[in-house]
Design goal:
Order of helices and strands: HEHEHEHEH
Distance between the termini: 41 Å
Helix content: 25-40%
Shape: globular
Largest sheet: 4 strands, parallel
Strand content: 5-15%
Length: 171
């Protein structure tokens, strides 16, 4: 049991340090031509967890090598407690090096909240990462709940909505 636990922990550590870079072709019928738009998406960085800050420079480098038009951060950017980030100023400086023609956009995940939520939001703003918060999504949403989400999108002038995850709220 101890050996299996050790092997599993080592595998998890090594796997978490790998940067996966798949490429997908996306087409949209009857819409404007987006064939030349490159979108880079990162998720589950868990900034503040063990080793996460050390990988940040490599991740930013790989993003910039892709020469993206848009960068999407798809949740769990933080690891629940903002104060676990050892050097937020250095992380902000590193994130500001991301080059994206049309900007960097974030959708928050379940680890991007808690008592230090306001510090997380201030960090994103200082790093130049755009976001909007609609925190009233409900499991099995009613028509009214969906309409409130639509109204929020209209209020902020959203051209595109990017959602990540699954479940009834996404359906």
């Amino acid at each position: 049991v101890l050996l299996l636990t050790t092997i599993t922990c080592i595998y998890g550590y090594v796997n978490a340090r790998q940067i996966d870079n798949p490429s997908y072709e996306i087409s949209i019928k009857n819409k404007v031509d987006i064939s030349d738009v490159k979108i880079a998406m990162i998720s589950d960085l868990h900034l503040g967890s063990i080793g996460s800050e050390g990988r940040l420079e490599d991740i930013v480098g790989e993003i910039n090598e892709l020469n993206p038009d848009i960068v999407c951060i798809a949740g769990d950017f933080f690891d629940t407690n903002f104060e676990s980030i050892q050097n937020p100023d250095k992380a902000i400086e590193t994130l500001r090096k991301i080059k994206a023609t049309y900007g960097i956009y974030s959708c928050l995940g379940n680890h991007d909240g808690g008592e230090t939520f306001n510090q997380m939001i201030a960090f994103l703003e200082e790093a130049g990462i755009a976001y909007e918060v609609y925190a009233d999504v409900k499991p099995n949403p009613t028509v009214r709940n969906v309409q409130e989400g639509v109204n929020k999108c209209r209020e902020v002038g959203a051209d595109v909505i990017v959602t990540v995850g699954g479940g009834s709220a996404m359906d």
